[in-house]
Write a structure and sequence with these properties.
The complex is a heterodimer.
Chain A lengths: L4 E3 L2 E5 L4 E6 L6 E7 L6 E6 L5 E4 L2 E5 L5 E6 L8 E8 L3 E3 L3 E6 L1
Chain B lengths: L4 E3 L2 E4 L5 E6 L6 E7 L6 E7 L2 E4 L8 E4 L6 E5 L8 E8 L9 E2 L3 E5 L1
Parallel strand pairs in B: 2-11
Antiparallel strand pairs in B: 1-3, 3-8, 4-5, 4-9, 5-6, 7-8, 9-10, 9-11
Classes of the chains: A mainly beta, B mainly beta.
Chain lengths: 108, 115
């Protein structure tokens, strides 16, 4: 099945640093969503984006819906240890397609 | 509100055996999804129900996988017979369209190991 390409695949950063990750697709999506998944748990919705160019924040998280509708970006500012996990983008037209994931590790 | 409940949390079976997973969605959520998440990958949609009707099962391997949601609430996903490549986490999610809030809520999943 189709999956979105996320980069980087993994990141190892120090606490306090900012993080950027992105998601690209060959297809246009109507909605972009960003999820975080902790070990042994299901994904949890972080941010939802509904129109091209939209920039939305949720605390230290900021996400943008790319103007071409084929990409999206997620930034995390001032990372903390509990940001550790796997971040998935997901695009939606008539079904939700997930990205390949970015694994984030934060060192104190 | 209570989340999406799934059971069992873990299951180990031998190949060619059968297995069933159960999901209880959030009360009032009409749409229910089953996703398969293979280690190191993002979740992949297997089947989507709207109430007790199937909306999309295009990626469900119907020769061995089946799912039902008879009363429009609980759902079961069955694999018969299982193959080694079915080892994965099976996630159930439910949703309700609430204005701009997608309301996709996932359960904790069932981790299946086929040996």
């Amino acid at each position: 099945g189709q999956q979105l390409n996320q980069s980087p695949q993994s990141m190892f950063i120090q606490e306090g640093e900012d993080v950027s990750m992105n998601c690209t697709s060959s297809s246009i999506f109507n909605t972009w969503l960003w999820y975080k998944q902790d070990p042994g748990e299901g994904p949890v919705l972080l941010i939802a984006l509904y129109k091209a160019g939209e920039l939305t924040s949720n605390g230290r998280l900021t996400a943008q819906f790319g103007t071409t509708r084929k990409d999206s970006f997620l930034n995390i500012s001032a990372s903390i240890p509990s940001d550790v996990g796997i971040y998935f983008c997901a695009g939606n037209t008539d079904k939700l397609i997930f990205g390949t994931g970015t694994r984030l590790q934060v060192f104190p | 509100e209570a989340g999406v409940a799934q059971s069992p949390r873990y299951k180990i079976i031998e190949k060619r055996q059968s297995v069933a997973f159960w999901c209880n969605p959030i009360s009032g959520h009409a749409t229910l999804y089953w996703y398969q998440q293979i280690l190191g990958q993002g979740p992949k949609l297997l089947i989507q129900f709207q109430n007790n009707g199937v909306v999309d099962d295009s990626q469900l391997p119907k020769d061995r996988f089946s799912a039902e949601r008879l009363k429009g609430v609980d759902s079961t996903l069955k694999i018969q017979p299982a193959k080694l490549e079915d080892s994965a986490v099976y996630l159930c999610a439910s949703s309700i369209w609430d204005g701009l809030d997608y309301g996709y809520t996932f359960g904790s999943g069932t981790r299946l190991t086929v040996v």
